[in-house]
Structures are given as structure tokens and as C-alpha cells.
Amino acid sequence: MAYNSIALNNVYNYYMTTYAPRGSSRYDTHKKSELRSIYNSIVKLNKESPLYKLDSSRESKSFAVGIKEDARELRNVIASLGGLDEEKILNKKASYSSNEDIASVVFTGDRPENAEAPSYEIEVRALASNQVNTGTFLPNTKAQLPPDTYSFDVHINDLNYEFQYNIKEGETNKAVQERLAKLVSNADIGLNADVVEDGKGNFALRFRSTAEGLKDGQMSIFLVSDDFTSKREGSVSYFGLDQMTRPAANAEFSLNGRNLTSHSNTFSVDGLFEVTLKGLSSGKGDTATIGLKTDVESLAENIGALVKGYNSFIRHTAEYQDNFAGSRRLLGEMRGITARYNSQFDILGLNLQENGTIEIDKSELRHAAFSEYAKEDFSAIRNFANTLVRKMDQVSLNPMNYVNKTIIAYKNPGKNFATPYITSAFSGMLFNSYC
Question: What percent of the chain has pLDDT over 90?
Fold first, then answer.
């Protein structure tokens, strides 16, 4: 069972790095009822699907996975703008920072209707920093350690990790340092390692913690030692791995006059805002004010994010249209959706371009927002967003509908049964590519 789990993790990592290097979000999690609905949809889809022969080229696989991930990304963009409820879609409140050089902000709370929007003033005196250990700079000559198996221990996050490696006869300092940098970085224990040069042809191994700041009573984020290691010692002192060149430090700032500290440069304020400190205040009175934009500004910003996500989907899909008829068909379906709302889009300052993308006239959009017919006019953009969500669900459910394929046989109407044919074809591509 453990072996199968490792194999699946490897396949998934290959999939994410080869086809779709995009991050996941909280909108990729689902309730049991949602998963049950997806399962029932897959069963129905497989039951009605004919048998066909797929184009098995690498390009075809990349296309299928690519449009599925693009659809997921657009759906998540829409979900992030107020949720997927038809009444709340595009209702997300937008935040602002008066000085982005000092602090940026994202609204993460849920402000009740008609409640006064809070605002805060932030003055930054120090940014949180990570710990850096820079080793001894050594020439790129033969290592002065005898050939043997060495090891050293790293204590981080209340855990100890031992790293073992061999030094071969005639191996240079730089070769060993580069190998150790890769060994430590790939271990994913909260350290990044690289080799730096001093400008004189000497090289040193540098360790940097991914975490910032120090907890109460903590003196360092990580410690490197080979005093009690299982293999030969001596490499820590030779390479200088235990030399702390910059200790970790906490962020220091004032929030509405209150002096505070934080282990990280990103933190939450009253469960409403996620603030990221970017730079230091130049002096007393140099502050950043954070708060919520007006409903009109928020709606305009949400529409901008929706259009940006939509245009990104169109451009990515268009990249495949020279080789895949399914891409051209999907673009035609998307144009059909926008065409239904074209007359309302003109009122809002949304202009449909020849390539299928949408361009925003910000002055017209703002004018529409203050119109007495704003509620009626903006209902069209919400209907458009809801239609896009349904379309993206359809594409995500069956990306194989758009790949090149040859129909072999149709199922006997009324006497067919559910099979895992389509989903197996899609997931099988990932294993075939990995293996």
C-alpha cells in the first residue's frame, strides 16, 4: 500500500510539473455532496459515450490536460470573486493599500451588509527575515577531506535530519558543495541551499531557511552539526556549515498606533485582511492605510479579474487550434456564450475582440456602475459568470471531448451500461507518460 501511494505521488508530481505547473487553491476542495455529484455525472457520461480511438501523441495528451487545467483555473478565478452562489457571484469586497511599497493587502473576511468598513494605518520599522548560514569560501581545488562517507545533522522545526554523502578521491570542493546543495534543497525540510562565489574564484555553501522570524525563546531556526552524527565527522567545520551569517528576525510595525511584532511578513488583521509587509517606512508618519474599496470599485475590480481570467483561457486554448479541431470547436462555443451577452456588454464597456477576448473600457464601466439602471445592467455580467462556471465544469469533466479521436462504435441505445472508459483514457495518459 505504501509503495502504491509513493507511485501515485510521483505520477501526480510529474503531471503537475510537466503539464500544469499551477498552484492549487481552497476552491479545489469539495464537499462530499459535490464529489458525489461529480461521480454521478461521470457515470452518466461514460454510459452514453461511444467507443473511439484516441490520438495518443504527446501533444494530444498535453492538450487534454492543458484545457482541463485552464478550465479549473478560470472556475477558481470566478469562485474567488464572491463564491459560486448565483446571488453572491462577483460580490467580493476589494481591498486597497494607500502605499503598496510598504504593505499590500487582501480582504479575507466577510463584512455584513451596511456595516462600516474598518481601516488601519501601518508603519513598518523592520521586516521579518530568514536565517542564513554561509560557509567557508574555498578554492575550486581538490577537497582536503579524506575520501569517506560523511554525514551531518540539521535540527529544524523540532526535528533532526541526517544527511549522508560520499567524498571521492580527487573530488573538488565545488563539486561536493554543489552535490550537498542539491541534497539539502531536494529534502524539502524548510531549507534552500546553493553555492555562492566571492568574486575571487572561491565558493561557499549557503543555507537559507524558508521560514522567517523567531518564536518566543527561540535563538535560531536551524542548527547544523556533526558532533553526534552516525558517519564520519569533520565536514561541518571544513565547509563552515554552522556559520550563521544572518540571524532570523521578526517584523516590527505599528497598527493604528499599537506596536506589534510578527514572525512573518504576511499576517492576518482581525480576521478581515491578509497583510504582506513589503518595505520600511522612511520615517515617522510614513504609513500605509488599508481598508475596503466602495461597492462600485469592488464590482469594477471583480469584473476586471473575471475578464482577465476569461482572456487567459481563450489565449491558452487558441495556442492549440492549429493542430486540434477540438480547440477551434471550444473557442467557437466560448464565442457563442459571449455573443448571448454582447448587447449588454456594450452598455458596460466590455468590447468583444475578433480573437474572442474581451477588452474593458474603464470609463464606460464606471459610468454604468453609477447609472440608475446599474443593478439591471450588471445582472448580465453575473449571468455570464454563472454560464462560464457551468461551461468550465463541463470541460473539466470531459476534456477528452475535444481531443482528436475516431469513432469506432456507438453503444446500443437503451441497453448500454456504465463503464470507466473516458476517465480511464484520461488518467491513463498520465501513467503512460510517467512510465
Answer: 45
CA–CA distance, 143 with 175 (Å, rounded to integer): 9
> Which strand (E) or helix (H) includes residue 9?
helix 2-18
CB atoms within 10 A of CB 297: 15
**Sign (positive/negative) of CA torsion 399, 308, 275, 283?**
positive
Do 74 and 391 form a contact (C-beta atoms < 8 A)? no
| Whole-model pTM over 0.70 | no
What are the two backbone dihedrals, phi and then psi, of residue 169, each rounded to the nearest 5 degrees? -60, 125
The Cα 253–Cα 67 span in angstroms is 44
Q: Which helix (H) or strand (E) element contains residue 268? A: strand 266-269
Are 338 and 352 in contact, with CB atoms under 8 Å apart?
yes
How far is 359 from 417, CA to CA, in rounded Å?
Answer: 46
φ, ψ at 127 (rounded to 5°)? -95, 150
State pLDDT tens for residues 313-352.
999 999 988 888 889 999 999 999 998 988 888 888 899 8
Look-up of cell digits 527575515: 129
